[in-house]
Amino acid sequence: MLDLKMLRTEPEEVQRKLAKRDPSLASDLPQFLELDKRHREAETFLTDLNAKSNAAAKLIGQLKAQKRDEEALLQQETVRAAKQTIGEQEAIVNALDSERSAWLFKAPNLPDDSVPAGNESNNQVISTVGDLPTFDFEPKPHWDIAESLGIIDFARGVKLSGSGFVLYRGVGAQLERALIQFMIDLHVEKHGYTEWSTPFFLNRESITGSAHIVKFTPEMYHDDEDDLFALPTAEPALVNIHRGEILTFDELPLNYVAYSPCWRREAGAAGKDTRGLLRVHQFDKVEMVKYTAPEDSYNQLEIMLSNATDVITALGLPYRIVLLAAGDISFAAAKCYDVEIYAPGVGKWLEVSSVSNCEDFQSRRANIRFRREQGSKPEFVHLLNGSGTALPRLVASLLETYQNADGSVTMPEVLRPYLKGLERITA
Hints:
3-stranded antiparallel sheet
């Protein structure tokens, strides 16, 4: 949620930043500020009415004590009339507050100055690491490789749950587990994260606190009876661990990591990269979240980005880092990097991680604060999130990159201890 004080005191700056996302967002701000002004004026008028009513009530007691009953009766009539006016004014204040809150609820975060303006076409590739693989044969797409090796049964996955659901088999299932364990170990043992195992369903308050409720609702699977949301990612779970709490400065930064299955409807994605593992409704992911002091959050963003790319480097895959434009970052983000890996069988760069700094946007919604020292005024923490990483496209790239002419797939050395020493997947 945006800082109301900043909206009031720096409207031109807010407009400039909103316009980087979408010019129409900036044009809405003057209407909001007029609404906010009316709300404050109505609140002031209500405060004055209450003060006058309280003063009249106090006067009634004094008049009665002085046996001036007729004057006391007149004051009682005044108080009764004032209460009716107060009730009407309270309704006005509440209505204006609801309208103002609705705007704030739907307003996205302000992009950082380093973020380019515009939409996806303005995204910037800022670095490419590693050489693209070469082959002396025609590389196959991962769905052909997986089916020929018998490690993924796409047809039976559809039979069980419908399109977009995947059935891993044998070594394919082991490979999923190996990747998850490898990434968790890397982030815990090398990068210093604390591992959590979270619920896979969250209540509405949690989904609201992380801001996923605003723009991500069409993507989430929802249980109507208990009003619970299946995780679209472990981010909202990790973000809400400290909802409503006040942390200490010495605790920061907090570095959390969790594995979870993730569920997404992929609304509006029909016909777009839907074959194989490129776009599925259920997938595994390892997620990182950081709670930081405001002045340290952009330094921690670069550290988190490095943590994500360490996964790719260890697996020996080429990757590139993309700085997303303001119109392409998520609703809650102020700045976001995508990490993409190359899949030679399909000839595409595939996103496997998004690393974002949400600054205090989520912490304002979830009321997560910290004190710099005992007795100091609480401040909102900055929250960062990043995939470390998502698995389906990572599996696709691994199969396509390490495929051999005989149809087998060589396993990266770092994964072999997690696969009981398996060096090559064969039919």
